[in-house]
Amino acid sequence: MLSGKRILLIVGGGIAAYKSLDLIRRLRDQGARVTPVLTRASEEFVTPLSVSALAAQKVYRDLFDLTDEAEMGHIELSRAADLVVVAPATADLMAKMASGLANDLASTLLMATDKRVLIAPSMNVRMWEHPATQRNLACLQGDGVLVVGPDEGNMACGEFGPGRMAEVPAIIDAVDAALGNGPLKGKHVLVTSGPTHEPIDPVRYIANRSSGAQGTALAEALRDLGARVSFVTGPATVAPPMGVEVIKVETAREMAEAVEAALPADAAVFAAAVADWRVENATDKKMKKDASGKAPALAFSENPDILAAVAQRASNRPDLVVGFAAETNDVVENATAKRLRKGCDWIIANDVSPETGIMGGAENKVTLVSDEGAEEWPRLSKAETARRLALRISEAI
């Protein structure tokens, strides 16, 4: 139920705008208060009178309405809600959001809000598949915007394919999940992410090419399903997610200590690319060249195996332990052996050979290895990979 929740509903200008009337009715049936905002184009499909009657609220339409600015300015309007929903989200609205434009009331509210934003895209199949729309979608997901749909089916233009706005019950479910009422509500999930930096001296270290993008996307997806997320991250190049507990570390040993401190958890996902070795003879002063011309000899020690330590715990073991296997050859075979060796429940394997562009890139192509065998997933954005994995986790715990 959404009793007492405040929803700011922005209705975009597409044929699917008619569904917004049913969405308003059903949100109110669940106890939500809906404040509607119409774009100029949406008024070609639904009338302010019908929207206002169903919402039992004033409809906001004009950025430069001085009365509204005196009573409730656009800044306050954008922040007085618990969630901002855009349905339908047209290609134009998505482009404005991705580009940071604010030239009407709807786009200004989306720029000014400090609340979560959920969009339900709706457009012609060719518009949806256009590279510009897909770039905008990836940008918005990277910014933390939630997405529901679109569905595949017949369209008003007579074409068939993805682009239909998600059905109202699916949007209601997404609203519920975005407000923390998702299937992982009450669950604690531990996620590790990013690389570790193993110092050689105060200015040099050993690291890898992990950006932390996949771990960050996964933490966001788990959060969006209602989980309480503890996010242990090495020095990643992507910003940590909002709305989770962020624990920053540098080295593998620091990560091991942070993981231990974050337990117990219902599930633990080890997406970090942890260095297998550390420099045993690291110095506290910068190493210098000398007259001999010889390179300094580095001695190495093995780092703690964080995944195995948690997976093989005798007590307080998470119900589900998931590891990642970044491989450059024999991906499934190596991942299967790693799962058995570590004692974890699942391994998410991927090929990080340089030609794939996956390590440090925006996409991933993974294989989920479990007791049931190897399940290959298509190449997807890291956000979509994370969403699918989070849903699978929610089904397992």
Structure notes:
- The protein has 397 residues and is an alpha/beta fold.
- It has 2 domains: 6-181, 3-Layer(aba) Sandwich (Rossmann fold), CATH 3.40.50; 188-278 and 296-396, Rossmann fold (3-Layer(aba) Sandwich), CATH 3.40.50.10300.
- The protein is built from 14 helices and 21 strands.
- Helix 1 (18-29) runs parallel beside helix 2 (48-55), helix 1 (18-29) crosses helix 9 and helix 10 (213-224) packs across helix 14 (382-396).
- The longest helix has 15 residues, at 382-396.
- It is elongated.
- The two termini are 22 Å apart.
- The mean pLDDT is 90.
Please provide a brief summary of the model.
This protein is of the alpha/beta class and 397 residues long.
Report Rg: 24 Å
Number of domains: 2
Mean pLDDT across all amino acids: 90
Number of strands: 21
Distance from first to last alpha carbon: 22 Å
Q: What is the CATH superfamily of the largest domain? A: CoaB-like
Number of distinct helices = 14
Helix/strand/pairing category: alpha/beta
Under CATH, the topology of the largest domain can be stated as: Rossmann fold
Biggest sheet: strands side by side, in what order? Answer: 12-11-8-13-16-17-19-20
Second rung of CATH, namely the architecture of the largest domain: 3-Layer(aba) Sandwich
Task: Give the overall form.
Answer: elongated
The share of residues in helices is 25-40%
Q: How is the main sheet built?
A: 8 strands, mixed
Low-confidence segments: none
The CATH first-level class of the largest domain comes to Alpha Beta
Q: Please state roughly what percent of the residues sit in beta strands, choosing from under 5%, 5-15%, 15-25%, 25-35%, 35-45% or over 45%.
A: 15-25%
